[in-house]
Amino acid sequence: MLHLRVIAPEHLREQVLDVLRNEPGVGNLLFYPGVALLPEGDEITADVARECVNDVIRKLKQLDIQHEGAITLHSLETVLSTRAHHAEEAAEGDAADALVWDELIARTREDSTLTMTFLLFMILACLLAAIGVATDSSVTVVGAMVVGPEFGPLAALAVALVQRRARLARQAVAALLIGLPVAMAITGLVTLGAEAGGWITLDDVKNVHQVDFIYRVGPISLVVALLAGAAGMLSLISSKSGALVGVFISVTTVPAAGFAVVAAVLGDWSVAGRSALQLLVNLVGIVIAGVVVLVLHPRKSLIPRSVQPN
C-alpha cells in the first residue's frame, strides 16, 4: 500500500473527504482540521491500495489540490490492519502489477536531471570504458556499464513519450545531449594525453579481444537493447533495484561512447564508426522497449481475485 497525505484548503475539505470515502481501496482515513500552516489548511491522510492510487490522484487533481495544497505519497513496507487488508481486497487489480504514474514520473524526473553529479558519473563511466579499451579489460568495461547514469534519461524519455510530457522529454534529451558529449570530449582529451605519453597506441585498439563486443554491432545488439530496456522499465515500475543493475551490465551505451572516442583519437575510424552505431542502437532500443512496456503493461490483474492465493 501507499500512504497518501493531502494538504487541502478548508473550502475543499468535504470534496477531498468524499473522494477518499468513496474509493473502495482506501483504508485508515485520518483527518486533522486546520493543522497545516504553509499552505494553510487541513491535513488528510489515508492508506491507499496501489491499484487505486492513479484514480485517487486524478480525482484530487481535478479539485486542483496540487496547486492549492499538496499531495504526497510514500510506500508502506508493513501494514497490520484488517481494514487496510479489506481495502486491498476491494481494489480492482493486483498491487504487484500496479503502475503509479505520478510515482514513476517523479522517479524518472529525478534520475534524468542534468546535475554536476550526473555529469561526473557520466565522465567517470566514459573514462573507465576508455581504460577498459586500452587494457583490453572486460571487467573494467563492466564497471563502466554499472557506473554510467544514462538509463535514467532514457527511461524518462520513454515515460515522457507515453504520457506526452514535453517538459520531461526536453529534460531527458538535454541530459543525454549534454552529458554524453561532455564525457566524450573529456575522454578524448585524456586519450590525447595518454597517447602523447605512450600509454596507448593504435595497436591497442586493433588488438583487443576481450572487449571487441563493444563495436561488433548487429541484430543481436538491438535484441539485447530491447530486452534490457524492457527489464529496466519493469524494474522501475516494480522497484526491483537488483534487476536494474543487471540492465546496466547488459547494454553497451557508455562503453560504446568511450570506445568511439578512443578509436577516433587514435585514427581507427572504422572502429569509431561501428562503436558510435552501437551507441545509437542501444539508445534507441532502450527507449523503444521502455515505451512498449509502458503501453502494454497490464492495468488489471491477470488473475481474478476469486482464484488468487491468500
UniProtKB/TrEMBL annotation:
Tell me where the transmembrane regions lie.
Answer: 114-135, 141-162, 174-193, 213-237, 244-267, 279-296
Question: Which keywords fit this entry according to its UniProt record?
Answer: Membrane, Transmembrane, Transmembrane helix
Q: Does the keyword Transmembrane helix apply?
A: yes
InterPro entries in alphabetical order: DUF389
Q: What is this protein called?
A: DUF389 domain-containing protein
Q: Which organism is it from?
A: Mycolicibacterium sphagni
